[in-house]
Amino acid sequence: MAVSKKAAKQSAPAKAVAGKAASASSAPVKSTAKKTSASGTPAKAPAKKTSASSAPAKATARKPTPATPTPAKKSAPAKKAAPAAVTPAKATPSKAAPTKITPAKPPRNESHTALVRRARRINRELGEVYPYAHPELDFENPFQLVVATVLSAQTTDLRVNQTTPALFGKYPTPEDLAAANPEEVEEILRPTGFFRAKTKSVIGLSKALRDDFGGEVPGRLEDLVKLPGVGRKTAFVVLGNAFGRPGITVDTHFQRLVRRWQWTDATEPDKIEAAIGGLFPKSEWTMLSHHVIFHGRRICHARKPACGACPIAPLCPAYGEGETDPEKAQKLLKYEKGGFPGQRLNPPQSYLDAGGIPAPPLGAPAPGAVVPGASAPGAPVPASAGPAPGSPAREAG
After folding, report:
1. Residue (of 338, 382, 379) closest to 360 by Cα position
2. Contact (Cβ atoms closer than 8 angstroms) between residue 306 and residue 148
3. Annotated catalytic sites, by residue?
4. Are the C-beta atoms of residues 185 and 199 closer than 8 Å to each other?
5. How far apart are CA 233 and CA 251, in angstroms?
6. What is the per-residue pLDDT for 363?
7. Which long-range contacts (CB under 8 A, 24 or more apart) does 120-127 make?
8. Is the pTM of this model over 0.85?
9. Percent helix / strand / coil, the chain, rounded to 5
């Protein structure tokens, strides 16, 4: 019995320990909660510890939150780098002018639609520069125009305009010129060059007009090209300017410029005419010819274009072939763009209103005029003269 009591006494603490262990292991949270609620101040320490122990858990839970802004911080330099990439482009204003001109070069595979748009834009710009563009041969009727156009071959319109007053003063009608003495006509036409061949042509076409057309210039292309010395170019000049019928005048200036602008690579006049005619409405053909020829004579010269003074330089694929310095290019300008007389002795009023100066008659330069350059080949007097003192020419267009 004593042994059993001792065993019971020994087992009692064991059970107590086991009970305490069981209660401690099974409800630690409750005991903590009870201590927190019961003990007051001391219980707050474990509560703080619990919150402290849970704080790291929250901190670990919040770690992804700073992790997400971390890429944002890395993306911030990318945003700063973006302006840095734009800054060089903005910081190169010197390249702005070339880049404005370089894109004018058409691609090799330029579509027909793109070519049409580019060509028409150039023509619109030329129309603003030369709103007064006109035929630069003096004439009063279709007969004078067809004769003057034949005489303009291998010479300037200025030289023709200085010569025809004497011719038409002596032979005003086709009948008069058809019956003229060839030697007398040759003497009048001598300043135009190739005067013998030209005399034969103008007398021959006058006879054809007298015999075949009743002394009247025909208004059809197929009839005009039958006249001696009259080709398609001359016929279109007459049709467009004397009869108001659209036509493209493919002279040397026109051929040169449309090839420079890469409107066509054709070299034969009839093929150039067909190619350019397909880029513009028929109603614009005549004025298109005037715009291109005006520009070719005044700025876009054959040997040394005045690129630095060209108003359509940003649109020109051939920019840079000539003088690009503005001051040097200004000295290359001819006629009213450079302050010199034009080619007509009797220009239209719109030309005069725009600041144009009439050309001087043959052998009679403007009083007090200063001749700026060499005259036309074979000319007895300067081909163009500067404006008279007191009448400064303002640049038109």
Report:
1. 382
2. no
3. 233, 251
4. yes
5. 7
6. 80
7. 120/279, 120/280, 121/315, 122/261, 122/312, 122/315, 122/316, 123/280, 123/284, 123/288, 123/291, 123/292, 125/311, 125/312, 125/315, 126/291, 126/292, 126/294, 126/295, 126/312, 127/287, 127/291
8. no
9. 60, 0, 40
